Input
Amino acid sequence: MSKYLMAVDAGTGSVRAVLFDLDGNQIECAQHEWEHAEDPRYPGSMDFNWEYNRSLTVECIRKAIENSKIDPSDIAAVSTTCMREGIVLYDKEGKEIWACANVDARSDDEVVQLVRDFPGLEKELYLESGQSYALDALPRLLWVKNKLPELYERIDKIGMFNDWLIYMMTGKLAVEPSNGSTTGLMDLKTRAFDPSIAEKCGLRSDIFPDVKEPGTVIGTVTPAFSKESGLAEGTPVVVGGGDAQLGCIGVGVVNSNQAAIFGGSFWQYEYNTDEAKTDDKCRVRVNCHAVKDIWQYEALAFKPGLVMRWYRDGFCQLEKAESEKTGRDVYDLMNEKAQDIPAGCYGMMCTFSDVMNFINWKHASPTFTNFELDPGKFSRYTFYRAILENTALITKGHVDLVREATGNMPSEVIFAGGASKSDLWSQILADVLGIPVKVPKVKEATALGAAIIAGYGVGIYSDISEAAEKLVKIDKTFTPSAENHKVYLKMYEAWRRFYKENLKIADAGLTKHMWAAPGL
Output
């Protein structure tokens, strides 16, 4: 009798193979870090080494099986997930010929070319696909056409990394819509490739593989891959999805009007809807969910986790020293002090990421402002708390954006990822949003989502929603403080006005943008 499910996750910084039992308990995880090197000829490039990374993937799968000491035949099914936006190009023999990772930024010239040659096209395509040139595959494909024309002519198919994982296991290549929709080459409503999108951008329209919905059994582990990896020959392989979408399944956000926030290096706000509509003002991204007939509005906050790491390493040397002595986490030590700072940080604000504006996406120079030369009030703990509050204010902006686009907002939100380990950050988020914030017990939400999809595909779970409800357990619930919520509502309006002015200063060239989308 089958006892386990395996998820294989090709993340930005590492690849992992994770084993779960049928109750959603993690049994084993084997992981290898990987890097995506820049080609020195092409600034901003982020190449994906498919040969070396394949060997790391195989080793992770083998280690997970060996370390768990299970019988490989007890694995009921395997599914896959990955960083989104990364693409792989194949030739007619099915061999990989070019690949780039998710934040590859080599195509600035191509964004300028698209905007210049096809005025108004980006908005037209966004309204159909939910994507903009900031993240989608169109500029990258145009880059290959312009810079590597001989390779461009050899392209037979395009795929994503989760599909690439399945292809190596089964020899079957298909794209699923949750990740495929991030290419900007799909029609949101039909959840299928629209060749006319490529044609409008002067690109080939004959390179699209079949589309399979998540949860579909696409094939089985081949004899050759079984020998390599230790998986049993004939193990069913189930179509998975993008990391954010499967992360939502892994925290139980599977139905319309549910929402999740994933707090890591970047923060993602994901809101589920049963309508494939986009935002008339093109401010927020829209993707297919890995659950059929559900779509997701997605708003991204740039670099909150990286800002926290910068502040920790630059200003928290005393806490780092104490952490080395006691074994306590640096952030826990900072949180203890920062929780005594009143909501609103005595009026101090900071600017890092702006509220998302997908079609004109840029961020002002990082700034702390409105503090006084009073060390009793404005210590490093106040500045630290200001960063926590700033990220929550950005998230409120994203909730408001989606509410404006859909007419709806969630009654509560699930908060997961590394930032959710902070009770203080979780409480600030609840206070700013004015709705309960729930933190699940699961620490590997994306992998658990892939395991649920795998089990659903082979009939272990009859329904994705029911499986998520059964397997996902809430650890803590943070209820908003009405008093603090009033403080933050007032602060939010001031922060938005200040950010607008700070962005003007960066646009004028007096300060440096923290980040701007290619071509802006």
Remarks:
- The chain has a mean pLDDT of 95.
- The chain has two domains: 4-251, 301-440+481-516.
- DSSP finds 18 helices and 22 strands in the chain.
